[in-house]
Amino acid sequence: GVADDTAAVPGSGSAAIVQSLDLLRELVADPWLMGRIAANHALSDVYASGARPVSALAAITLPFAGPAILRRELKQLLAGALHELAAADCPLAGGHSMQGPELTVGFVVNGIAMAGDGRLLGKRGLAIGDQLILAKPLGTGVLFAAHMQRCADGRHIGAAIDSMLVSNRLAAELALANGASACTDITGFGLLGHLLEMLGEACDARLQLARLPLLDGALAHLRQGLRSSMHPANAGAREGLELTGRVDEDLLQILFDPQTSGGLLLGVAPQRTGSLLEALRGGDYPQASVIGEVVARASSAAGRVAVG
User: Fold this and answer.
1) What is the pLDDT of residue 6?
2) Going by DSSP bridges, is the β-strand pair 16-25/104-113 parallel, antiparallel, or unpaired?
3) Percent of the chain with pLDDT over 70
4) Which of 44, 51, 59, 258 qualifies as a cystine partner to 18, CB 3.0-4.6 A?
5) CB-based burial of residue 155 (10 Å sphere; 0-12 exposed, 13-18 middle, 19+ buried)?
């Protein structure tokens, strides 16, 4: 449904087809790398739904340029995208390109359920007592804001790119194998925005700021006052926060930091948390962390997140 990361439409038999569309503006100057990041970002919504991608369509806007430059840029973008799509066993079935004032790279991705019974993951399955696990570290938004202002450490940007290129495929497979109750990927709305989307009619959440996994350099740039362009809009979700005790205001800002190709946020029953966390850390997600828990709704108001 529209409240989830993908739209599910009826397929043959009991299998549903999930569909998602994601677009990115230029993040890095290297078109091959940009193609890889954009493809991985687009695949994540399908993985967050507990589905495996089966086909993709590209939608690319290239900045106005001469024919030779356009051909070169498109070739390199598609080469990068195909690198990631091939790793995902997802053929590129076609697409459309055009010219415009700036680069945008996007993909429609179609998928089918990973689970043999056709079960999909969704945002709204959280249960009271579930533990919240974040698979990948936060901070891409503020790090690339610093990069745009030429004040980021190149090593930190390199590590952020490496994180964006880590597929969420294994995390989704492990989530299904360990009976995760709900799942979403952390992208443009930031951790708080996406967590609030997951809270149903009976649930609130508690987060522990000190447990949030961060990319190197992210907190330092937040302390300098740097913010992504989407940060102010995301900070509007602060009305859904309840602060408990003294809170590091700079660290709190990471909740509003928009992510590109961010990690999965998973809800899982307490008795299965240890096995899932161990599997994630032993796989592609060494910084996977339990960051909080789901609690009973405290009032009839909209879902709230207590932070301490």
Assistant:
1) 77
2) antiparallel
3) 96
4) 51
5) exposed
